[in-house]
Amino acid sequence: xxxxxxxxxxxxxxxxxxxxxxxxxxxxxxxxxxxxxxxxxxxxxxxxxxxxxxxxxxxxxxxxxxxxxxxxxxxxxxxxxxxxxxxxxxxxxxxxxxxxxxxxxxxxxxxxxxxxxxxxxxxxxxxxxxxxxxxxxxxxxxxxxxxxxxxxxxxxxxxxxxxxxxxxxxxxxxxxxxxxxxxxxxxxxxxxxxxxxxxxxxxxxxxxxxxxxxxxxxxxxxxxxxxxxxxxxxxxxxxxxxxxxxxxxxxxxxxxxxxxxxxxxxxxxxxxxxxxxxxxxxxxxxxxxxxxxxxxxxxxxxxxxxxxxxxxxxxxxxxxxxxxxxxxxxxxxxxxxxxxxxxxxxxxxxxxxxxxxxxxxxxxxxxxxxxxxxxxxxxxxxxxxxxxxxxxxxxxxxxxxxxxxxxxxxxxxxxxxxxxxxxxxxxxxxxxxxxxx
Length: 437
Prior knowledge:
34% of the residues lie in helices and 21% in strands. The chain is built from twelve helices and 17 strands. Helix 8 (247-254) runs parallel beside helix 10 (284-298) and helix 11 (316-329) runs parallel beside helix 12.
């Protein structure tokens, strides 16, 4: 029995695909082992959203090669999709996006070729490449899961690709155009997950708000279908574009009791001039209105976002406008990224590239603001009783606790009395110690 180890880099979609590849390996007789020395096959699902993601992808590929020089190193995903056979010389097999479901036959063919070449001094000159032209129309890749590493919450990929072409983003080139998963296929997978004990699902995609634009469905229709599945008690949504949030959309979501009041609304900048250069399809004022709609409808939902600092042409005045906007909105969590030049995007050749030291300083300012706002939101929970999905038992500071997440996705803990894993319970937040960072 061959041993396989997998490592994921990047987003929730990547994480889903990595677990789906693991399930394919298990179903075909591979023993899944930790990402440590001793595996026969190493599968690294790569990311290319930033230069740092590229670097981490290369590091993990080289780590795999070093752990077992005789192993087969498989590089999958966005980094190799954009780099092709030039990605790295330590790779044996490249599997791009929309080809991951073919992992097993690709491996079998590779091992068969190695067996045929034994004793012939055969040396592979280039890695085997299974890459599609993602610029051309192609259907949704049918990967599926029945279980995941987490035992209470499951990510469910419902969509792939993006048609937005933000000026800084390489992902439309790596992932291709919008492709939606069939509604019935999603429902069937969620039913399987529910039958295996999962209580919470997260609907995720590369551009989730575009779900159904290619099939005639809509994200709201999908959410309502999942809401009807017995056994699922909570539904979360992946990152949403501001444009999808209307009074009607919010009201229909609020009418579904399983929907968690936790929304990741992509921002990128609080300055309208910067947003225009980014090719984002809204103004700062329009974004603020979307936040108002969600708060008016859900009361005090957890709003989280992404912000890029140091985008080409971002002046001190524009940065301050963005910082002030983020402070005014008061996000629960703000994920800060320094602008990363991606070859092949419009932003890479824009004038006014911001020096790295300036980006670093702006990032530090935004991170500090984000921490302050996160603490302010969490402190509103003190003295309240909240619903928590219990997840794991941990030992902290010499005491045993059980941790879980509220509907707003705030992680809390309570003193361990009995194992309540995968159960919804009410927890009184008596002090700040119970809220975990």
